[in-house]
Amino acid sequence: MCNLYSSARSQDEIRHTFAIDRDEAGNLPPLPGIFPDQMSPVILAADGKRVLTMMRWGFPPPPKVWHAASHQRAQRRIAVLAALA
């Protein structure tokens, strides 16, 4: 599965197509390529209304991967601090 996509529709087309009640996306530029960790337009249901807003695109890493990476960073910092002492 590829996690890259694009948004070829204008903000007005999105609002009309999805019957948006509230637009919080600001001035939406053309988005020919939306990559992971970039902000992307999404439609949320809030208080019974459709809201167009911006959110970070991508999947969070699995907890074990996140934990292992943060543990490795912590171990490196401990080693650097120990070397300075």
Automatic annotation (TrEMBL):
SUPFAM superfamilies linked: BB1717-like
GO molecular function: single-stranded DNA binding
Species assigned in the record: Methylobacterium frigidaeris
Lineage, highest ranks first: Bacteria, Pseudomonadati, Pseudomonadota, Alphaproteobacteria, Hyphomicrobiales
Protein name: DUF159 family protein
One of the GO BP terms on file: protein-DNA covalent cross-linking repair
InterPro entries: SRAP, SRAP-like
A Pfam family hit: SRAP
